[in-house]
Amino acid sequence: MEGDRIQAEPEKDLLRFITCGSVDDGKSTLIGRLLHDSRLVFDDQLRALARDSRKHGTAGDEIDFALLVDGLEAEREQGITIDVAYRFFTTQRRSFIVADTPGHEQYTRNMATGASRADLAIILIDARKGVLVQTRRHSLICSLLGIRHVVLAVNKIDLVGFAQAIYEEIVRDYLAFAQDLGFTTIVPIPLSARFGDNVTSRSERTSWHSGPFLLDHLESIDVASGISALPFRFPVQWVNRPNLDFRGYSGTIASGRVRGGDSVVVATSGLATTVREVLTADGPLEFAEAGDAVTLTLADELDISRGDLLAAPDDRPEVNDQFAANVIWMGEHPLVRGRSYVARVGTRTIPISITAIKHKIDVNTAKHLAANTLALNEIGVCNLAAGGQVAFDPYEANRATGCFIIIDRFTNETVGAGMITFGLRRGTNLHWQPLLVGKERRAALKHQSPAMIWMTGLSGAGKSTIANSLEQKLHAAGHHTMLLDGDNVRHGLNRDLGFTEADRVENIRRVGEVAKLMTEAGLIVICSFISPYRAEREMVRGLMPSGAFLEVFIDTPIEECARRDPKGLYSKAKAGKIKNFTGIDAPYEAPETPELHLRTVGEQPDQLAQRIVDMLAARNILN
Amino acid sequence: MLHLALKAFFPGRLPFPLLHVDTTWKFRDMIAFRDDLTRRLGVDLLVYTNEQGLRSGINPIASGSSLHTHVMKTEALKQALDLHGFDAAFGGARRDEEKSRAKERIFSFRSKDHVWDPRHQRPELWNLFNTRVRPGESIRVFPLSNWTELDIWHYIMLEQIPMVPLYFAKERPVVQRDGTWIMVDDERFPLRPGEMPQTRRVRFRTLGCYPLTGAIESEAETVEAILEEMRTTRLSERQGRLIDADEASSMEKKKKEGYF
C-alpha cells in the first residue's frame, strides 16, 4: 500500500559518503548526475541550471551538471569548488548525504572535514590521467580519518573509448599502493559522469565490466560500523535539573548501548553508579544505543558535569593528560609547539598544547619528514598535553571518542583536528604527591595572599625599572617578594632558548611554572617579561587560581622605547644585527583587558609602581 | 525545530526565548498560530519589528521585495539580536533548500556586523562544534541543516506536530502574479485595475511575507496527502519565494548581509 510505503520511509538507513578528486576529474558533475538521474532535481532548479549553463557552463549546449552543485557565486565564475558542500538524495532503498570536497592542494582541511563523518569515499580518477599524486593524497586522508570503504571511480571512460585495458591498468596501479591504507573494501567502477554510464544504470558500452554500477553499489554496500556494539560511551552534554527533585544527564550516546540497571563509571574520576532510567520526552526507554539523544538518571548523586564521559565499567576508556595523535593543521598561522590552545574532546573543552612533533607525513608519498612546526594543510604525528585528565579511546577503535579539534584562544578559529593514537605512559604513571601544608597556610605566615604580577610590554618600555621600584615598596612594607626578570632568567634557566616564536613560547612556559612554584611558597612574584604573545600570557594566567594573576600592561609607544633604548638594542635591530626583535620584525600582541594599564609617557616610575601597590591593596593581596 | 528543542531539554524548560521578526506583512493565520502555540507551551516569545523601517513607509508592495526584505527582515533581525545581546540564534534553514545554504556550517559564525563570510568558515569536523565568540560576535545555529523537506514532513507526521493551517489545502482568495498564486490576506493588498481575487484550492510550502509568497494549487489537506504530493512534484520548495529570484546568487548575497 502507498500509505505503508510512506510510513516505512523514515526507517531507511543513511549512507554518508564523500567524493574526492582533483579539479576537472568531474566530481561535481558526478553528483549533479546522481541527483538528476535519481529525479531529484526540480523543474525550477533545472530551468535555473539551463540559464547558468549558458552563462558559466563548460559543456557546450548541454546542461552542465557541475553547476547544480557548485553553490557559491565565486565558484560558479571560477569553475572550482572551494568548500565542502552537502547534498541529499533518497532512493527506494537508502538515503544519502554527500559531502562534495575540493581537490585543490590547499584544501586538505576541507577534505578532512568531509571525510570526518563519512562511511565511504568515492575517489575519482580521470581515465586519461590515471593514478596521480592527488589520488594518493585523497586516499591517505580518507584512511587517516577512518573511512574503510572506497569506490574507485574511473571517470571519463568515454574519452578513452571505453577501453578495458586502460581501466584495468589504473585499477592495478591503485590497488598496489592502497593495500597499506587499511580499507575494508575497494570497488572499482568505470564510468562517465557526463553521459551517465554506470552511474544510475549499467552501461552497455562497458559490457566487459562485471562489477556493479555506482548507485547499485551505494544502495547495497554494508558499512555498518558496529558502533552500537562497541563499549558504552556517553559524553555528558548538559546537566538537566529543572527542580530539586530531578537530576538527569542529557546527551547523545557516542557508542554502545545502555539500559536501566546498567553499571556505569565516570571515566575521569572512576566513581561508579547504576543507571536508574533512560529517559526521553516520550517516556522512559527500555534501552537506547549509539546516536540516541537521551537523559540518564543515576542511582547515586555523583559530581558529574558537562564534559564528563560516562562509560561501561568493564571496558573503560583510557584516562590520561598526555597522548599521541595525528594532527591535521587547518590554521593560516602555523602550529606553535608549546603554545596553549583550546581543545574540544567530546563535550569537554580543555586547554591543550603540542609538546612535540614527532614527524610530519608527506600526504603525497606517506613518507615521514622531520618537522618543527605544521603549516596549513600539513599532517603530523604529535604528542599533546592537556590541562587535565581526558577520557578517550584510540580513534581506530572508536571514531566517536578518539577525535578532537584545536581552537586558537584569540582568533577563536578552528586551527586543527586530531585523531588520538595512544596515551603516553609518562602521563599515566605520574601522580600528584599530596602536600600537608598548603600555600594559603604558607602565605598566612607572611600576612599576604600569594599572587603573580605579570608586567608585559616592549623592550625599553620601563618594565624592569617599575618592577624594581615595586619590589622595593613591597619589601619596605614587610612583604615577601621575588622578582623574575627576562634578561636574568635567560642567563640561567633559559639560556638554551633563542628568540624564535617557539623559543619565546617555551621561555614563558618555564617562567610561568617557576613563578607558580614561588607563589605556592606564599610569595608575591613580580614577573617582568616582554611576553609578546597573548596566548602564553593567558596560559600562565590559567596556571593560577582566579584573581591571583594580575596582568600589568607597561604601555610605551615604540618610538619612545627606541628613543630611550637603554640597552642599545633598537639601534642594533634596526641595523639588522638582531633578528626577531619585538616591535621591529617580531609581533607584540598588546593585552586586551589587563588588570592594570600603565601609560608611561610623562609619568615617574615610582608613581607607576605605587599604582600597582594600590591595586594590590584594593584586591586584598596585601593584608 | 521547536518540537525538537522541547524534547531535547525535557523535563527541563526551554532555556532560551523565541524571537519572531515581524514585518507586519505576515499571514494572519501564522500570527494567530504563533500566539496560540507559545501561550499553550508557556515559552517566552519576543516579537521585534523595525519601527524605523515602518515609519519610513517600507512595505513589500511599494518598496519592492528586495528593499522590504533587507530593511524589515535582515536589518530588523540584526537590530533584535543586538538589542537582546544574543550570542547565538537558532534557525530552521536546511542545506537542501538552496545552493549557498548547502555550504553553510551548522554553527555558522557571524562577525560583529552579523556578516557571513563564506570563504572563511570554520572547518566543522565530526560532531565537534566550535562555539567560541568574542563579545559582539555571534553564531547562527542550524540544527536541521542535514534534514530534507521530505524528512521534515515525515517527522511532522510521526510526531503529530501541529502546523499552521496555511500549509494545508483550502479554498483561499488569490490572484495570479508572475505565474504564481498570491493570497489576498487582508485589505492592504492592492489589486491591479480589473483584477478580481478568485477562489482556488491552494496551500503554501513555505511562509514568508504574504505578498511575496506564492501558493500552489493543491488538494492536500493532511500531512499524508502532502507527503504524497511531494513525491510527484516537479518544483522545489523555495520556488514560491519571490525574494530568491531577485537576482542571481540572491540568497548568498542576502546571507552575507546578515539574512538568516
How are the SSEs placed, and which strands pair?
The complex is a heterodimer of chains A (623) and B (260).
Chain A: H1 2-8, E1 14-20, H2 27-37, H3 43-56, H4 66-69, H5 73-78, E2 85-90, E3 95-100, H6 108-116, E4 120-126, H7 133-144, E5 149-155, H8 164-178, E6 185-190, H9 214-220, E7 233-235, E8 238-243, E9 246-252, E10 257-259, E11 263-266, E12 272-280, E13 283-285, E14 287-289, E15 293-298, E16 309-311, E17 318-329, E18 341-345, E19 348-361, E20 368-369, E21 379-392, E22 403-407, E23 414-423, H10 425-428, H11 439-445, E24 451-456, H12 463-476, E25 481-485, H13 486-491, H14 501-520, E26 524-528, H15 534-543, E27 549-555, H16 558-564, H17 569-574, E28 596-599, H18 605-618
Parallel strand pairs in A: 1-3, 1-4, 4-5, 5-6, 24-26, 24-27, 25-26, 27-28
Antiparallel strand pairs in A: 2-3, 7-16, 8-9, 9-15, 10-14, 11-12, 11-16, 12-13, 12-15, 17-21, 17-23, 18-19, 18-22, 19-20, 19-21, 22-23
Helix pairs in contact in A: 12-18, 14-15
Chain B: H1 2-9, E1 18-21, H2 28-41, E2 45-48, H3 51-55, H4 64-84, E3 88-90, E4 107-110, E5 138-141, H5 149-159, E6 170-177, E7 180-183, E8 198-203, E9 214-217, H6 223-232, H7 250-257
Parallel strand pairs in B: 1-2, 3-5
Antiparallel strand pairs in B: 4-5, 6-7, 6-8, 7-9, 8-9
Give the distance, in angstroms, between the N- and C-terminal Cα atoms of chain B.
Answer: 15 Å
CATH superfamily of the largest domain in chain B: HUPs
Oligomer: heterodimer
Overall geometry of chain B: globular
- Give the SSE string of chain B: HEHEHHEEEHEEEEHH
Q: Which regions of chain B contain 5 or more consecutive residues with pLDDT less than 50?
A: none
- Helix content range of chain B: 25-40%
The chain-level mean pLDDT of chain A equals 87
What CATH first level of the largest domain in chain A would be assigned? Alpha Beta
Main sheet of chain B: which strands, in order across?
A: 6-7-9-8
Key features?
heterodimer; A: 623 residues; alpha/beta; Rossmann fold; Elongation Factor Tu (Ef-tu), domain 3; 4 domains; eight-stranded antiparallel sheet; six-stranded mixed sheet; 18 helices; 28 strands; globular; disordered N terminus; B: 260 residues; alpha+beta; four-stranded antiparallel β-barrel; three-stranded mixed sheet; 7 helices; 30% helix
